[in-house]
Amino acid sequence: MIAAERRNMIKDLLIKNKSVKVSDLVKQFDVSEETIRRDLNQLEKEGIVEKNYGGAILVDRKSPHPTVLPLQERQQQFAKEKELIGKKAAELIEEGQTIILDAGTTTWHVATGLAEKGPLTIITNAMNIAEQCTTNEAASIYLLGGKLRRNSLSTVGPQAEEELKKYNANYAFLGTSGISLRHGFTSSDLYEAEMKKAMVLASHKRVVLADHSKLQKAGLTSFCTFQDVDIFITSDLADKQVLDDIAKSGVEVIVVSTSDE
Questions:
Q1: CA gap 249, 171 in Å, rounded
Q2: Strand pairing partners for 100?
Q3: Which part of the chain is the HTH deoR-type domain (predicted)?
Q4: Which of 53, 18, 23, 4 shows the shortest CA–CA distance to 258?
Q5: What does the domain layout of the chain look like in residue ranges?
Q6: I want to staple 231 with a disulfide (CB 3.0 to 4.6 A). Which of 14, 92, 182, 207 is the partner?
Q7: Are 179 and 215 in contact (CB under 8 A)?
Q8: Global pTM?
Q9: What is the CB neighbour count within 10 angstroms for residue 1?
Q10: What is the pLDDT of residues 194-235, one digit of tens each?
Q11: Which of these, 214, 211, 207, 216, lies nearest to 180 by C-alpha position?
Q12: In the structure, what pLDDT confidence band is assigned to residue 144 with cuts at 50, 70 and 90?
């Protein structure tokens, strides 16, 4: 089978299933993993797919902003990178502190690093993060009420925003849909953006977490500028020039190494 024919078949699979895995394609076409990755690289250059950890997803060409995928799909994207970023963020937290954890797949990995932290007060709008935080038996966990967003298992809306006004947290750990040198940190959902703004106001230090794919992408709306953020944590896969520009705005940039992964 020639490469063009195989890529057309991969396109058909993407249209049908919205995503593909490298391991599945290797078996289906009886070719090497390297061959499949070359195919996906070419499809990415054509703007058809966005590669992720272990495969690729179909690009939504109807939307000018990043597509908001279901939670399970987003958890698979750049999974190891997000894990490393989340663990680094958890190192900032000290026993007895109050923290806010935004909904998101990278912030979920912060929660996985809290089991041995001792007493903490944890505030979150994400059901899956609240559940993960129960591994710390000494933690007091507050799940914000509001309207449930099914694709992220998170609550949004005026009720949740009003609850946040009660708190004065040491840290807020925030996810982002995109990072733009012009617009700052952005979200693809207006309601989630308002939640993030409320979290910024309810915290002393603000930490934004993002894998390298979020850089130089602008979501639907901005939720804070670089001047509103104290620390930005990403990986060494991110564009160094962009990171330098963010650092020049006064943000402490922490870069985790992926070289051993």
A1: 20
A2: 123, 172
A3: 3-58
A4: 53
A5: 3-59, 76-256
A6: 207
A7: yes
A8: 0.72
A9: 9
A10: 999 999 999 999 999 999 989 878 777 899 999 999 999 999
A11: 216
A12: very high
Contact 229, 251 (CB under 8 A): yes
Name the strand (E) or helix (H) holding 207. Answer: strand 203-209
Of 207, 217, 261, 260, whose CA–CA distance to 238 is shortest? 217
Report how far residue 216's alpha carbon sits from residue 31's, in angstroms, rounded to the nearest whole number. 34
Phi, psi of 83 (to 5 degrees): -60, -45
CATH no. of 3-59: 1.10.10.10
- The dotted CATH code for 76-256 is 3.40.50.1360
Any long-range contacts for 151-155 (C-beta under 8 Å, 24+ apart)? 151/68, 151/69, 151/70, 151/71, 152/68, 152/71, 152/103, 152/104, 152/126, 152/192, 153/71, 153/103, 153/126, 153/127, 153/128, 154/103, 154/125, 154/126, 154/127, 154/192, 154/195, 155/125, 155/126
Query: Is the predicted pLDDT of residue 61 greater than 80, yes or no?
Result: no
Q: How many CA atoms lie within 13 A of 69 on its CB side?
A: 18
Host H or E run for residue 51 = strand 49-52
Which pair of structure tokens corresponds to residue 65? 């902003």
- Biggest CA–CA distance in the chain, Å, is 63
Tell me, letter by letter, the H, E, C secondary structure of 93-115.
Answer: CCCCCEEEECCCHHHHHHHHCCC
Contact 122/135 with Cβ under 8 angstroms? no
